[in-house]
Design a protein that fits this description.
It is found in: Secreted. By secondary structure, this protein is mainly beta. It is built from one helix and 15 strands.
Length: 202
C-alpha cells in the first residue's frame, strides 16, 4: 500500500523507471489516467508511458516543457498549454473516449478546453506500462534525456472516462471507483535508482 508515499526518481538524467502491472482483460475504448508529480525539470520528460507491441505511444503523458503537456493516444497527440508552474505539485488527469474522440485534460482539479483525438480508435490490452521513461519500443528504447527526475504519486488508470465529480475527487484524494491501476494497491517493480519515501507534506 503506497498511501501517503511517493516514488523519488533521484538522478537527472536517469535510466531508472517503475514497471506497473495492470489487470487488462480487454482493449480499452475509454480510459482515464491520473497522477501527481513534483519536479524542477525544464527539459522534456515522460510521466506515464503505456506501450503495446504495435504502438510505443499507445498512451503517453509527456511534458515537452514546463508550460505544456502532450497527451498521446495511438501515436497521435494533442497539446494542453498551462501557466508556468510555481514549483509545486501538479495533479493531472487525462481521459479519452473512442466513440466521440474527446480528450479531456484536468490540472489541479480544473478542466481545460476539450480536444479531439483518435475517434474510433481502440487501445491494445497487452501493454508495458512505465513511470519515468518514454518507451520507443515495447518495454524499452529509452532516451535518458526524456527521463523523469523528481517525485511521483497517486497514479491511477481506469477503463472509463471519469465524470467531472470523480476528476475533482481524484485531485482531492477522496474515495474513487475501482481502477485497473490504483495507487493504494499498486503492483509495481522498481528498475534502477527509485526510492519509495513518505510524502513530505499533504
Amino acid at each position: 500500500d503506497l498511501y501517503r508515499k511517493v516514488f523519488v526518481f533521484r538522478k537527472n538524467p536517469s535510466d531508472a523507471y517503475v514497471v506497473l502491472r495492470a489487470r487488462l482483460e480487454q482493449p480499452l475504448h475509454n480510459f482515464t489516467v491520473c497522477l501527481r508529480s513534483y519536479t524542477d525539470l525544464s527539459r522534456p520528460h515522460s510521466l506515464f508511458s503505456y506501450a503495446t507491441k504495435a504502438q510505443d505511444n499507445e498512451i503517453l503523458l509527456f511534458k515537452p516543457k514546463s508550460e505544456e503537456y502532450r497527451f498521446y493516444v495511438g501515436g497521435k497527440f494533442v497539446t494542453f498549454r498551462i501557466p508556468e508552474g510555481r514549483g509545486d505539485w501538479e495533479h493531472v488527469c487525462t481521459s479519452w473516449e473512442s466513440a466521440t474522440g474527446i480528450a479531456e485534460f484536468w490540472l489541479n482539479g480544473k478542466p481545460w478546453p476539450r480536444k479531439g483525438l483518435q475517434r474510433g480508435y481502440t487501445v491494445g490490452a497487452t501493454a508495458a506500462i512505465l513511470l519515468g521513461q518514454e518507451q520507443d519500443s515495447f518495454g524499452g528504447g529509452f532516451d535518458f534525456y526524456n527521463s523523469f527526475s523528481g517525485e511521483l504519486t497517486d497514479v491511477y488508470l481506469w477503463d472509463a472516462a471519469l465524470s467531472p465529480d470523480k476528476m475533482r475527487a481524484a485531485f482531492l484524494s477522496l474515495r474513487l471507483p475501482p481502477a485497473l491501476l490504483a495507487w493504494n494497491s499498486l503492483s509495481y517493480e522498481v528498475k534502477g535508482d527509485v526510492v519509495v519515501k513518505p510524502r513530505l507534506r499533504e
